[in-house]
Amino acid sequence: MLSELxxxxxxxxxxxxxxxxVLSKEWLSDSFVRVTVDCGQLFSxxxxxxxxxxxxxxxxxxxxxxxxxxxxxxxxxxxxxAHIEFxxxxxxxxxxxxxxxxxxxxxxxxxxxKTPWGLHVDExxxxxxxxxxxxxxxxxxxxxxxxxxxxxTTPITAVVENRLASDAQVPVCASSRHQVIRCQHDSxxxxxxxxxxxxxxxxxxxxxxxALEAGxxxxxxxxxxxxxxxxxxxxxxxxxxxxVA
Length: 245
Known about the structure:
Blueprint: E1 2-3, H1 4-12, E2 16-29, E3 32-38, H2 42-45, E4 53-59, E5 64-76, E6 81-87, H3 92-99, E7 105-110, H4 121-126, E8 132-137, H5 141-148, E9 156-162, E10 178-184, H6 191-201, E11 207-213, H7 214-228, E12 235-241
Parallel strand pairs: 8-9, 8-11, 9-10, 11-12
Antiparallel strand pairs: 1-5, 2-3, 2-7, 3-6, 4-5, 4-7, 5-6
């Protein structure tokens, strides 16, 4: 939770502020919802790029706001629209998404979002020297899909960890140049084992993008560096969320 003072401080750090307006909502499974929004002034602050994310400010009582970062998916700059996708669980952001209706508005801040690996996606799309392995779960799937949807002709292996049986209903934005491997977190080989195997099979020095639960991200990154020699230059990693013990 952030106080109004902290919210003001975020604004003073140079973030672009905009208001998103809900246009429609689509349930992709019983635990995953896509909300289509009018993006207001967003694209006057920044062009759309894969993994572009916003901080959304969810009201939580009179004195506090609850902020969470969400990836913009399927951006249409000309129409000023995009999707925001929610993996539902207990919490203020999920409650908002469950109840959201056309006409609802929410404040958003653009602060800190940058392209993965510090490279332009067109450079990744034209580079044939290194394979790409993406590793994520349902929370980071929107960011993964934003990459896959742009790098349509680039050979990519995408490893996705499902948590619920219904997660298999949520589509991965894959083309014929992409291989998708889905794992179940509570059965079969672990996502970290599958990802490590994909890296080992991909050839010399692949680029690897990891966005799992924080502990799994740390474990996989350590393994990739120690066992496969993946350097910082070729590795983009983020603990997307943290499991509660």
